[in-house]
Amino acid sequence: MRFFEFAQDPLITKLVATSDQLRNDLDSGEVASNMTVDQLLQYFQKYDILLDKSDLYNMIKTEPLNHLIANIQGDQVRFKGFDTIDQPEDEKKKIVKQMANKAAQNVAK
To answer: What angle do CA 62, 67, 72 make, to 5 degrees?
Structure first.
């Protein structure tokens, strides 16, 4: 972002600072990486950023949140760098099995 963009919208300034704080909290383990959408909205409310779910869904496609949030799946927020931590064991086994099948098919060719 350019400096003049911060001067035009104080919400963007707050959002940049809060998303940076959230990244630090995630890295330090102070905040769990398996947040729900409601928990994330409450986190932003602590810093006087009032959003609703539709705002959040739109904002994760643009800066600064697109650098922090990979996706929202159902009610779970997936943060970049943290999205494989909470996969269920069955899902992990399924992925490994698919990879093994593809490798076996490639060897057979």
So the answer is: 75
Q: Which DSSP string corresponds to 7-43?
A: HH-HHHHHHHHHHHHHHHHHHHTSS-S--BHHHHHHH
Query: 23 lies in which domain range?
Result: 3-108
The token duo for 68 is 């922090």
C-alpha to C-alpha distance for 65 and 11, rounded to whole angstroms: 13
The count of structural domains within the chain is 1
Q: What pLDDT digit, counting tens, does each position of 12-23 carry?
A: 888 889 999 999
Cis upstream peptide for 64 (omega within 30°): yes
Q: What global pTM score does this model have? A: 0.66
Question: Cα–Cα distance between 27 and 75 in angstroms, integer?
Answer: 22
